[in-house]
Specification:
homotrimer, about 450 residues, mainly beta, 2 domains, 27-stranded parallel sheet, about 40% strand, globular
Chain lengths: ~450, ~450, ~450
Amino acid sequence: MASKNYYDVTEWPVGNPYEDIGEVINSIIADIKSRQTDTDVNKGGKPGAVIYIPPGDYHLGSQVVIDISYLKIMGSGHGFTSSSIRFNTSENEWADLHELWPGGSRILVDIPLEVNDEEYKGAAFYVERSGNPRISSVEFSDFCIDGLHFIEDGSRETNPENTYTNGKTGIYVASACDSFRITGMGFVYLEHGITIYHADALTIHDNFIAECGNCIELRGWGQASKITDNLIGAGFKGYSIYAQNFGGLLITANNVFPRGASSIYFDGATRSSITNNRLHSFYPGMVVFRGNCSENLVSSNHFLRDHEPWTPFLGIDNGLDDLYGLLYISGNNNSVIANHFSEGINTQNIKPVGATPVIIRIVSGNGNYISNNHVVATEVHAKISDSCFSAQVDALLTTEASEPLTVTTVLVEKESLQNTILDSGSDAQVVMDKTLNAFRATPTPGA
Amino acid sequence: MASKNYYDVTEWPVGNPYEDIGEVINSIIADIKSRQTDTDVNKGGKPGAVIYIPPGDYHLGSQVVIDISYLKIMGSGHGFTSSSIRFNTSENEWADLHELWPGGSRILVDIPLEVNDEEYKGAAFYVERSGNPRISSVEFSDFCIDGLHFIEDGSRETNPENTYTNGKTGIYVASACDSFRITGMGFVYLEHGITIYHADALTIHDNFIAECGNCIELRGWGQASKITDNLIGAGFKGYSIYAQNFGGLLITANNVFPRGASSIYFDGATRSSITNNRLHSFYPGMVVFRGNCSENLVSSNHFLRDHEPWTPFLGIDNGLDDLYGLLYISGNNNSVIANHFSEGINTQNIKPVGATPVIIRIVSGNGNYISNNHVVATEVHAKISDSCFSAQVDALLTTEASEPLTVTTVLVEKESLQNTILDSGSDAQVVMDKTLNAFRATPTPGA
Amino acid sequence: MASKNYYDVTEWPVGNPYEDIGEVINSIIADIKSRQTDTDVNKGGKPGAVIYIPPGDYHLGSQVVIDISYLKIMGSGHGFTSSSIRFNTSENEWADLHELWPGGSRILVDIPLEVNDEEYKGAAFYVERSGNPRISSVEFSDFCIDGLHFIEDGSRETNPENTYTNGKTGIYVASACDSFRITGMGFVYLEHGITIYHADALTIHDNFIAECGNCIELRGWGQASKITDNLIGAGFKGYSIYAQNFGGLLITANNVFPRGASSIYFDGATRSSITNNRLHSFYPGMVVFRGNCSENLVSSNHFLRDHEPWTPFLGIDNGLDDLYGLLYISGNNNSVIANHFSEGINTQNIKPVGATPVIIRIVSGNGNYISNNHVVATEVHAKISDSCFSAQVDALLTTEASEPLTVTTVLVEKESLQNTILDSGSDAQVVMDKTLNAFRATPTPGA
């Protein structure tokens, strides 16, 4: 390779990437900055560089600090495996396992943390730059960031590997950023997978982000970005996808597994789209709009809510009851059109006891348009298994012999007015003041 | 490259990749296994490797057998071209062609096969491992797998290159797998492109899989996977996308061309999504739900069915008649919302003669919700051409001067009850027992 | 690298890639052609090659001419930054900017152009080949094409960097092509980003194409292609996405920003899908169907139209007034289902003065199906800012305290008949001959 802008962490003379890849990458970044000093040389000057991480196990003890644009960090393998299954396998079986750890181009996040450290200090990759322009076109591609272990968090959880707590973050972007790309990555066993403040034109595409306390958090504010085609699944305490004060966010083609406390959580997000995703959860509150979320579109999504089938997480939930709604809306002028909702639960588990579960719930705000959603609610007798995989598959494929479950398909609270509810439930299934909201019942067979 | 976990097939000392890349890759895998022997060394141990295939023609005589996780095999070119057009071009024109064969990083599948060999023996890449954990994060990226020729299959097909039969498979995964990725690949002239048993969290994204007998087959059972953003088109005998006993599958953003016997075939698939695809077929039975497929969502898809315009395949079909339905449903509680259906056929070709073609057909199962689908049916006089490309483009763009064609937009068989059919056809176009199913006709202009 | 089919522009002995990468790549292509001469050697012969461009600033003075299949040109960084913001920053602040130019693997298009040169002469990459087969599987991946500057165009625009005019094109494909791929690229400050004639099975996926006069133009005719998951935003004079005489095009999962004259423009396109996109514009005419566009599906899109908030472009528009429609349809049998439309404008800015703005407008053609679209129209008092980013974010997030705005949600002109308009506006909001078109009003709260 004749170009000085291509770096391989295993060939860099400073540091040992297997012992501390953070030191190596920081040294490379320093080298780029020492070579690319002038902003305007013959119409160029700071093109950045690519840092390649071949497959291997790389401990990261020093946080990587990125403050240059056009830096691409890439590996050759997202390396996901289920650490959750491994850590919930009896230790006496470990000797028989083919692998114990994730792999690929794998960063082992080994940053020493103090109890009261600020959150960002636990980030493997920390991006921050003040001044102008906003840092642009930093790319992360095709490698794995592994937090290794969760730890005791003071909860009653007996296996510390199930706490989803360790103070570690994969990628943390602290300052406003433009045109970043995160693609083909694997994130596992981090308390926070990706945390980004003030994003513009961000791409989070085709990643595998699972068994993290939280997966994707877009904080502060942001605009015109996309979260597309990812496999995602947070822990029971956290967010799978979270967006704060965001406009023009497109969330599509994601397959969001359990067991996040929510699948998608909007806090003051507007004019954004949640379309065409497959969402699966073990709890209510799958999609939540808080803080006056307005003019968003929720369309062509498949919502599935059923019960936890895997032994280690039995009895755990997100604290919400069945009156909360699978889709919870606070805000104005949102559209909820052409979604499918499947709720398969055991009436004995309904909270509060005897309640009629709610599917779509509008708690405040006016002018929402809820149309042509199909709700399938069935009473199921969930099976429980020690095998995570077969338990889920069994549950997913069980549709025979299920009894209908009475639900409220749409509940509009009194604080919300002027909504339009069409073809999303029968007269009995839609609970609201029908003089203050518009309504057309789904026609009923035989009626 | 200082890392031992990066391999280039053209630099490996064992075997000759141009003569038998299978021998080379198997030797590399053996090397990885000999070096990565310990499952737990300083929190790692088996990170896997990447094997790079530069552009070139690589014969594969020995099947590649993969039984390690975190192996990535990548090239630099999906290399698709239409072998079908080439093999249906007169041989005396071949000398004038710029290229005769596909290219890129191209595997030529030359495995010697016996007539009664089991299917998996014809696979270029065979993945199998028993024990725990399931084999994880094997990745195939950016190369081409070419089956070279189809062969005589005893049918009346006069050109053996049009049989879609040769006993060859591109990638065959026999045992349960997790977090596999297949991206940026090209598959051509294989009897089976991708065959995967027992998939979990599988990604099949942004590939070109065409002119294969079957393109994607997910067999056995599986869950929580995605087939997204692919260009796909099987032969007239086979599946473009097939899924068996699958839960939580997301099929979206695919452009599925003719001439598969079906575009998407579900056998006992549940709680899955077929959303936002463009589907084109020359036969009925475009999307088929067999074996009690329940709680699936079919939304925002564009269905187009018209006639074969290309001379070599005239007279061939998938054996289904026009009463079968473009969308055939056996199952409960499915949602079919906001789809567009275009059927442009010649009344003289309708089978049985004089029949009224069916668009959506529910043959069994209850509680399906069919809403806001738009059916456009026109009588067309299909043109036929010796040029595959111009024939299709002409047909696609011909919409002028077409006469309306009478169709049944929704047919609910007597075995199916309690369905809801809304705004998906006029009273005359929706055929069912309207006392046992709910119905609202699409309003008619002037009515 | 033992393979001769892998080239690195920085290692090639002919030319200097930093001075003229065009000369280098053309020399490499000549080398490929000199080595790969035979079309049929042991079932192969012309596999093509990959040309790698490491991160860096590469001037291109000589146009790259591509006439071989299976050529992949790839970099390691899409390198986008906002040149528009930079060029609208006061020059005396430039010294304080971290970067002035885009980066990554960056091509600086420096082709000397004469005033009356034909358009293709300004293309950095020019693809053309006559004869058969059509040129196939050329791939562009992960690099940046930068047009550097816009120039005076005779308009009243005072800053020539805001004209979106410079005669430069990124990629220009002149002859029929098959199975091309453009992925992970950045395009900036080009008059035309991607111009492709006669495309078949084209993939334009996951690119960043912005601040170009026009972004994607598919000309002539074409079929069975996809434009997916891109970030796109043309200049005020041009097309973000344009398709001519195209059948079976799938446009999905794109986030299309302002300020293109249109977001998506179809000229005679048929049986195509615009689904699941996020579209944002400062002008009417966001999606335009001209020239008898028929049997297309527009579904699950989020349309947002508001006012320009950034000082440098105040007062500029695309020349269309508010009666034109955000979605303009000329054609038959199209489907418009389950879309969200937000229009937030200042009544004082409405053109013509006092007019009632139109959202969906059908000007000609019959049989269109417009169903379950939600229109949110509000009076806003747009803020203006010298900061491009904060101005847009502020506007996007402002939904409080907005007053409803009276609009025509659907206008069907007299030339168009037999359309069906359902649940897309009240009786007053839908303007058409209700005896010649079918209509069902969205139920009104309290009615």
